[in-house]
Every structure is written in C-alpha cells, then in structure tokens.
Amino acid sequence: MNRLINLTPHPVRVVLPDGEIVLPPSGQVARLGEEVRPAGMLNGIPVVEKRLTGLDLPPVQPGVFYVVSLAVAQVARREDLLVPDDLVRDERGQVVGCRRLARIV
Rounded distance, CA 92 to CA 90, Å? Predict the structure, then answer.
C-alpha cells in the first residue's frame, strides 16, 4: 500500500462517496521562500519582481506520495507530489475538504 504524507500545516480532508479520509499534518511543512526586488512604477502603483526560493522537500521514495500546496507542486514538478483538488466548500464559501488529489504535470 502507498503512503500519503501531508506536508501542509493543516489536516487535508478528502470527501469520498462512502466516507472521508483525513490526512493529518506530518509536522514538516513544504514551503517556498521568496525574493522580492523593486521593478518600478506603473501608473503610480509600485511593481516588484518576485522569485520563489528555498524549496526543501524529502527525497523521492518508492510508494510514498506527499500532499503539498499548489505553489510547491508547480515549482517542484515531481511525480510524488499531490495537491487537494475539486474543493468542497461550506455554506460560507470556506474550503472544508476536497474530493480528490491531483498531480501537477
């Protein structure tokens, strides 16, 4: 059986037709840093250039998949990274879960 490890700071709730699976946070969070530098003004509005940095992920392991944020998955482009997809929202529009996980290709 494959292992799913949640590298986000909060539980990930996957809502399935026959119940739900909650992936608790692992205690390790995959985050991106950023470098920002001024790039000028546009119609009186400051504009900056931003570069994402500092991605620290566990090594690829057979049968192990990591749940991460969309930004982390888009930058890393690894086949073992999954993101919550098909989000479930409550009556106030707050995300309370997802119906599936997605691989960013």
Answer: 5
Query: What pLDDT score was predicted for residue 61?
Result: 96
Q: Which residue has the tokens 């996980």?
A: 101
Order of all β-strands in the sheet with 3-6: 3-6, 64-67, 81-89, 95-102, 12-16, 19-23
Cα 72 to Cα 65: distance, rounded to the nearest angstrom? 14
For 16, the domain range is: 3-102
Q: Which residues of the chain have pLDDT under 70?
A: none
Q: What is the number of domains present in the chain?
A: 1
Q: Give the separation between CA 82 and CA 72, rounded to whole angstroms.
A: 10
Q: What is the pLDDT of residues 73-83, one digit of tens each?
A: 999 999 999 99
d(CA 69, CA 75): 10
Single pTM value for the model = 0.85
